[in-house]
Amino acid sequence: MSVDVRSVWSHRALRAAVILAVLSTGWLAAQWPHALIHPAIGWIPVPLSAGLGAAVCFRTARLAGEAGRFWRHLGIIMLILLAGVISSAVDSLAGPDAPTQRSGGFTMVLYLGAVLVLVWALLRLPVRRRMITFSLDLAVVVCATTLVAWFFAVQQSLEVARVTGTVWTIFGILLMLFAGLLAVAKVALAGTGGLDRAALWVLGGTVLMGAGLGAIAPLLESRPYLNDCQLSIPVCAAGIVLAALVQRHATPASLAAPRKPSRPFSLLPYLAVIVADGFVLAGVGPDQTQTRILVGGSVLLTLLVVARQLVAFYENSSLLARVDASMLELRRHERRFRSLVQNSSDIFAITDAAGRVTYASPSLIRFHGIPADRFLGSIASERVHPDDLAPLRRQPAVPGTARTAQMRLRHADGTWRWFEVVTTNLLHDPSVRGIVSNARDITESRRYQDQLAYQASHDALTGLANRALFNAGTVQAVRDAQSSSSGLALALVDLDDFKAINDRLGHAVGDALLVEVSERLRTSVRPGDTVARLGGDEFAVLLPDATAAESARIAEAFIDALAVPVRAAGYELLIQASIGVARHTADCDASDLLRRADMAMYAAKELGKSRWVEYGPELDAHAVEHAQVAAELSQALDRDELFVLYQPIVGLPDGEVRGVEALVRWRHPTRGLVSPVTFIPVAERTGLIVPIGAWILRSACAQGARWARELGPLAPWKISVNASARQLLEPSFVATVASTLADTGLDPTRLTIEITETAVFGGGRALDTVRALHALGVKIALDDFGTGHSSLGLLRTCPVDVLKVDKSFVDGVTGTVEQEAIATSISEIAQALRLEAVAEGVETAAQADRLLELGYHLAQGFHFARPLPADEIAPLCTHPAVPNLTH
User: What are the alphabetically sorted keywords of the record (predicted)?
Assistant: First the structure.
């Protein structure tokens, strides 16, 4: 049911109750002179009023919340009254002396029961005051009111008893009087216990009115066809319906919170005493009994008031004791708070609306080193770092709210320290009238957080940005370049042969080298450029707002900076780097930019290292070509597309074939003859060099064994096979060589494994593999000798039988003395160490003559023979076609 429907129903019930009360009153008025119609007509509104009151009470009990129990009791009372009214009507109209005003015993029991239930319901309402105080105040009111009632009514009590036929009528009237007084006293002295105050006032007045109307029975003695219930019950029912209506319209707030008293005491008991004393003075007369009763009542009132005052004194004493204890505890709290404030490292301050300091804790004064009299009244913002004024100005505008900010405050020593400041707006609080600030020093915490953030985004060894920070910066730089159309370049720097240095000389030398390289890169860039170490020996440089000329100049600066020998941990090292540069275009994101720089860097390595290459679309095509070559090369062995050529190694000066070097070639079905320069790097990078190398080794060893069987002493004595660095790192390589020799029947001393200096420069597994091969009886040749980092050092650690002099040194033997010095030195070293020296790349007779003069007895090159198929080697062994020498 909606609120509007309930309200309409309640108002209709009230109108009906008032109409029934008016009809009953009109009936009595009309029948007063003499009986006009049958007396039964006057009884009709009475049970209707009682039934309507019961229905309204029960309906209110469902809506009144915690006061519902009281209204349910009131509904039960109205039902008892309904039964009593019906019984009273039967007594009046159907008795032997009908019509009569006399009531039977059952009727009086019902009336008295209803009044007793009302008293019980009122007594069950919660009392918010102390029970003893409330009881004494209530006793004073009841005693005084009883004296007054006795003064007016008790003298007529015999008449009431005679008219109604029982003394219980007087007892019921007194009970109703007590109930009404109890309701009034509950409101005035102890609160309403969840009932609406106005509703309880109406209810108390209604009960008092009912008691008064019940006392008019003597006036109706001469009119037995009338009854006081015909007036009192409808009027009381109308009052109860009105109280229920007031209760139903009460707000929840008015029911939840007790009304704050306007004074610390109640006037009701004192007013009752004053009134009772007045009637005592007025009623003293010759009647000794009446005088004694009045004086006795006055004495009782005096005793009750004295007892009430004694209780009040006791309560005041207890209250004062509690106040003293509370004040003592308050002083303890105050001293504790003052001690905390004075000795706390946190800062407390209060500023007014204008930002002036009105209170400052001692810690703030110590922090700034300023006396309190000079600090108070100053502007708080003058002590804050200029960059942190914005958070300070954003004070909480809503009263009672707080805001947290971090800012720097100037210390007495002139430094700035970080504080976390919590500001609370208490301008509305009369005891504060300001902005309360609580500041905690977080300088060390900020420093620690900054260190953690730095460590998470920077390389611990070099101090450069790490990969995560560099990637984030690249993404932002690409976004900025796309929005502003500015230039952007990215360079990848990879140190050449760094692993060899790190493995051979140790990580301490490698770390020192990386630190020096990072410093050279940092000093070669512009302000605003970002240098990062991505990991290992790979560096990256982000060049925002860089033109093509600027990025080229910076790449050249890197090459020049790294060309100077590096002093690292006591070693002087020559380091080289391959650099790839990529410029941002509209069609690439951060990952594309990094990928393009990586492709350019690998292109620089393939071109011979120690250079830089800028990315171009052709590199994408090269990458696609590289992938396609790798895919086709992986099937070349199965398709029998690879074959081996042999280049003779001849003796000087007779040109006799002393050995051959096995060289692989690839005949592609559509590409034709693919150069080793094209597919060998692909095989190295993809790992295909391992199975291809094993196939070359087996083919060369099988051919060598065949020559030995067919040609005998004329067969090439040395079969040289190249082994890459990737093969030397394979754990099974030694076993592969051993099984190949066993399967083919080739004498291990006739097999030479050619290795490069860089393959074993770092030592480790590669050097262990070479030593294991040498232990098998296999000869070791050091290819391209003299072009590496520390060739002479290798001769002490690596088992070497043959030195193969690089073509770059052979080309200079016919030039100046300075140009042939290296070739001369290598020959002398080989002689001193009892090693064989083979000169590679001999292309002219003059070179052959000069090499012979320098002490070389083995040579190889186009001057003697190009790489040939196996069937063309045998004729050269039996009938050597020796090129003519000049001497």
Answer: Membrane, Transmembrane, Transmembrane helix
